[in-house]
Amino acid sequence: MAHSTSDIHSITLSIDSSSSSQTPLMGQRGQAPEDITFESLKKIITEDDVERKRSQEMKQKAILEKFQTAPFEQIVAKIDAESMVFQNKLSEILTTISDENKDNAPQHQTTAVFDMQFPDLYVY
């Protein structure tokens, strides 16, 4: 295995520091960000997961509180409204599917079994 004379840490980039905006590759004041490692990526993912779980728990707590404190009539009205939206969408989908099947179905006449002519090979 041949070793290269260049070192990966000796590579530098010249960046125009005239813009005051921060780019994803550069930290504050034009400094290079910290090294990206497996551990840093794992930490970011874990933090996102914890935040997602926390927000999910807050939503569940709000729903539970709503069902515990809201009047029964209000809960029924909300569920009826949601179910009507679902029912309308389902009916629309089923109507579309049945219309497509009617258009694509081949038109053939039904024949009684005793009127059918079978090939001699199948008749005993």
TrEMBL record:
Residues 1-33 are annotated as: Disordered. One of its GO terms (biological process) is protein localization to plasma membrane. InterPro entries: EFR3_Homologs. One of its GO terms (cellular component) is plasma membrane. Residues 1-21 have a biased composition (Low complexity). This is Protein EFR3 homolog A-like. It comes from Lingula anatina (Brachiopod). The gene is LOC106150647.
